[in-house]
Amino acid sequence: KKKKKKKKESNNALSENDLEFNVEDERSNARLMGASTMSSSSNATTEASEGTEGAADEPPIKKETWLFRFAVFLTFTVTLTAFPAITSSIVTRAEMNNNSGSDDSNGASTDGDYWNSFLFLLFNLGDLAGRVFEGSSYAHSRGLQNVTGQVAFCRSLYRIVFVPLLASCNVNRSGWRIPRVFSFDSFPILFVFLLGFTNGFNAACSMALGPQTLSSDHHSPRSDEIENEDIEIENPPSLVSSSLTTERTNEDEEKEDVAKSEEGAFLGTMLSAGIAFGSVVSVLVCGIFTSGGYL
Prior knowledge:
- The protein is mostly helical.
- The chain has 10 helices and no strands.
């Protein structure tokens, strides 16, 4: 009887050990299944993202991006419409009175040559001042350079007012239809400087903010998912998923950098296009403002 009892106790101990081993095996199998599902889901997501990358390698061009492009284009179009097509014919008040009193209305003088050179220098100084002001701490504190595309486009559009203002100064050109409103020399000095200042400020602002519209800020949800996965399951697949996500974010950042550099080059093309189109518009404007022909 004692031997039978010992055999039963040994059998019960063995069965309990077998149960413990079975439970541990089931737990390990469950962990492996969870790890496999995690890896398969991560692979599926990476494959899906890679499949969609073919159609979305480049960030989508937003409306904001196009507004900054047209802002650059319109800025230089307006500038070349007035400068130097109209400003080259502006003379001093004294020279205008002398020419109006004499029969030779196209007579040249050394004062006029210095005056035109002075206006050209004044425009370049204003353009430089505008670009420096755009990067100053005062503009940053006031938020003048951190604007939307619509605001940048409206700023460029409002600069059209400089065309009639400069056309109303002392323009010494035969058949000029625009009446002389601003006869004092201080007015063309002010208008030319503001024309250059707004040109430099708007160009620098639009060309700096345009590429920033292509950046995306959608990395934080993925990092939150990784943290939740690490909390639920503490196993190596979480590290694999986090490494995959970091690789994906690095690839996205590289693509954004490439897209930003390409956008900067395209904004330079819009700048050149604005200069060319503004030159054509200046011929048309001078033809409209002058009776009897162009320029």
